[in-house]
Amino acid sequence: MKYQNLMWILWPSFLMAGATSAAVFALIDPLDIVVLNTLQFDRNVVYAAGFFLFWIMAALSSALTLYMAPRTPIQPPSDSLS
């Protein structure tokens, strides 16, 4: 994979992870999240884990989009009226 492709995947997904984290954690307090009815994590741990989870999800979406993109430029249709 070329470095340019990696940039096309990671940079937009980083921006979306930041926006998604801000939106989710504006509505949910990390101290309200309890795992298996016993585990409660520190706020910073939940913020970091949430950010990286959102980043991975957005990166997978960007990678799938890049994988499915056409390899050759799409030619515009020729004007048959002229």
Topology:
Blueprint: H1 3-27, E1 34-35, E2 39-40, H2 43-68
Antiparallel strand pairs: 1-2
3D structure, described in words:
The chain has 82 residues and is mostly helical. The protein has one domain. The chain is 62% helix and 5% strand. The chain contains two helices and two strands; from the N terminus they run H-E-E-H. The chain has helices at 3-27, 43-68; strands at 34-35, 39-40. Strands 1-2 form a two-stranded antiparallel ribbon. Helix 1 (3-27) crosses helix 2.
Structure characteristics:
mainly alpha, two-stranded antiparallel ribbon, 2 helices, 5% strand
Briefly summarize what is shown.
A hairpin with a 3-residue loop joins strand 1 (34-35) and strand 2 (39-40). Helix 1 crosses helix 2 (43-68).
What is the C-alpha radius of gyration, as a whole number of Å?
20 Å
| Whole-number count of domains | 1
Low-confidence runs of at least 5 consecutive residues: none
Give the ordered list of helices and strands.
HEEH
Percent in helix: 55-70%
Q: Which structural category do the helix and sheet elements fall into? A: mainly alpha
Secondary structure tally: strands: 2
- Count of runs of 4 or more consecutive helical residues: 2
Largest sheet: 2 strands, antiparallel
* Bulk shape: elongated
Question: Averaging pLDDT over every residue, what do you get?
Answer: 85
Beta fraction: under 5%
Distance between the termini: 43 Å
